[in-house]
Amino acid sequence: MLLSSCKNQILKRKRRYRMHSCILSHYSRQAAYL
Questions:
Q1: Which domain of life is it from (predicted)?
Q2: What is the mean pLDDT of residues 15-32?
């Protein structure tokens, strides 16, 4: 689910994003809620 969501974000933004950067941002958001 995580990887698919990252791919969707990259496709929507149509920019060159790295998978690990997307994952890091995802986890950082979860950490913020904690």
A1: Eukaryota
A2: 68
